[in-house]
Design goal:
Number of strands: 0
Number of domains: 1
Radius of gyration: 27 Å
Shape: rod-shaped
Number of helices: 8
Largest sheet: none
Structural class: mainly alpha
Distance between the termini: 70 Å
Order of helices and strands: HHHHHHHH
Length: 211
Amino acid sequence: MTFNMELLHTAIFYVLYIATAGATFVVVERMIFYWVSLRDARRLEAVLTPETQHVRDLPADLVERDSLPAEAVRRMLEAKPQLAERSDMEDFAESLFIAAKAKLHRHIWVLDTIVTAAPLLGLLGTILGIIDTFAALATSGTSDPAAVSQGIGTALYATALGISVALYGLFFHNLFQVRITAINDHVKILLLRAGIGQDEAALPGARRAIA
């Protein structure tokens, strides 16, 4: 059983092109999502105080947004009257934080996979291209250095493309990790402020703790 090395080599290029398109889609989608989330989190922090006990105490245009911070604050304030015990409130806030964290990490695995796999695919493409070049030379019996150089140069292009795709994905993967950390911190502050009770809000120490 023989393999068509030229066909496999070409297929590697198409896989890398598809990976680049997939990474670009994730980058655009996540960039918009993180920008909206960070913007709304900062706006909510500016108006959410320890004295805020109901959703109606906040501007409707902020809490009714379809964004991650607005949803977390809205659900926390709506559930607070039913959470009599402090431990129940902390557990509910923790569940909201975990849910928010999962949404923030959504699709990031795609970039992580591309960063890991792209250089390996590029190297595989180079190996297949070199094998195909020497197989063609062995069949034709040519000893032209230019033909050898051209074939190897085309094969090495796969490695260059794989590394380029990996660097592209790595840049945005690391950038998004910084955004995720920042949004997580904002959401944590919002949940603390939204979950504090009316009696606790009257205490100066509680105000300083969540400021």
